[in-house]
């Protein structure tokens, strides 16, 4: 009888312990939403990886990725508190500071902006400065108002007469050898080569002095103040997700990407990953020895001053309110790199 009671007591304690562990686990699974800036693609791969391989769950997070796209308004959802994090960028956050909107970048997944200009291979365009010789540059409105102004301020020969609106089709560029068009390093060159059968000349603005971070983890000051632990865990898990995506088995993540964006292909995904690695989009500069996601004041300040010089921002703007370095540059996840 005593042994039976003893065994019952041990079983009860074990059951209670399991129940408490389950309750603790359930309590730790904070629900978090992250809004991307476009349709699912390899450029979002680390976030999908952290969902697919359980990295977010390991960090006590239940993460929903809210896909962006042409009709999405994820940045507005962040401002209104409908999502917790957004794939922002320094231009948006510094603009928010000027408008009194407390948005803050907490991690910079892309150390380099993937923005490129694309030229024909047989047009005599061998270096970035040569693009000034071309008759036409197909640019989106945002590019015309930002990096084209930066190009005019820093290189001779670029002029407003070159500008023509980019309609997100390569057809006008392909029909005109005296033109170049904007694009993303990881996508448009691939599509142009598929359609035209030639490898275009590609010039990364970041390798010619244009310095914004890209693919940020952006949140609100309220989130940082009220849930700093959640912010830290989301940043850490996302960074680990990116190391896993780049150097581990990313097949499940890619399946999630294709589920969200059925038009995405394995060929495009492979091309994007290869180019991100080749050009150091994610791993370059400070992230090489401080880990993916690193933000520094020096880098952020350099971009702010570039934009002040072309009158995008007011010189008196306190750009330091647009970011914090407290969650990054800790070598998180670097041991995972193979």
From TrEMBL:
Keywords: Signal. Residues 42-243 form the SsuA/THI5-like domain. The keyword Signal applies. One of its GO terms (biological process) is thiamine biosynthetic process. Coiled coil: none annotated. It comes from Rhizobium sophoriradicis. InterPro entries: NMT1/THI5 (IPR027939), SsuA/THI5 (IPR015168). Pfam families: NMT1. Residues 1-28 form the signal peptide. This is Nitrate ABC transporter substrate-binding protein. It comes from the Bacteria.
């Amino acid at each position: 009888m005593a042994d039976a009671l003893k065994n019952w007591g041990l079983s009860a304690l074990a059951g209670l312990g399991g129940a408490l562990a389950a309750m603790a686990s359930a309590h730790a699974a904070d629900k978090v939403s992250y809004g991307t800036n476009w349709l699912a693609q390899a450029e979002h791969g680390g976030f999908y990886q952290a969902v697919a391989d359980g990295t977010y769950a390991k960090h006590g997070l239940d993460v929903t990725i809210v896909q962006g796209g042409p009709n999405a308004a994820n940045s507005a959802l962040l401002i209104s508190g409908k999502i917790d994090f957004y794939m922002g960028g320094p231009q948006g956050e510094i603009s928010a500071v000027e408008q009194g909107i407390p948005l803050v970048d907490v991690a910079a997944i892309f150390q380099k902006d993937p923005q490129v200009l694309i030229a024909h291979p047989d047009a005599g365009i061998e270096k970035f400065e040569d693009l000034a010789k071309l008759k036409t540059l197909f640019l989106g409105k945002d590019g015309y108002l930002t990096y084209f102004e930066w190009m005019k301020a820093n290189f001779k020969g670029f002029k407003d007469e070159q500008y023509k609106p980019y309609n997100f089709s390569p057809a006008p560029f392909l029909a005109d050898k005296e033109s170049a068009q904007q694009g993303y390093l990881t996508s448009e060159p691939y599509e142009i080569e598929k359609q035209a059968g030639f490898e275009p000349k590609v010039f990364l603005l970041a390798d010619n002095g244009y310095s914004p971070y890209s693919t940020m983890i952006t949140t609100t000051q309220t989130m940082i103040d009220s849930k700093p632990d959640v912010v830290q865990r989301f940043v850490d898990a996302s960074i680990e997700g990116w190391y896993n995506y780049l150097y581990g088995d990313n097949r499940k993540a890619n399946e999630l990407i294709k589920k969200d964006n059925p038009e995405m292909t394995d060929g495009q995904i492979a091309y994007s990953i290869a180019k991100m690695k080749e050009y150091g989009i994610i791993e370059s500069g400070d992230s090489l020895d401080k880990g993916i996601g690193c933000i520094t004041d020096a880098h952020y300040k350099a971009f702010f001053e570039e934009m002040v010089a072309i009158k995008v921002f007011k010189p008196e703007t306190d750009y330091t309110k647009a970011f914090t370095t407290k969650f990054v540059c800790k070598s998180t996840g670097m041991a995972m790199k193979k």
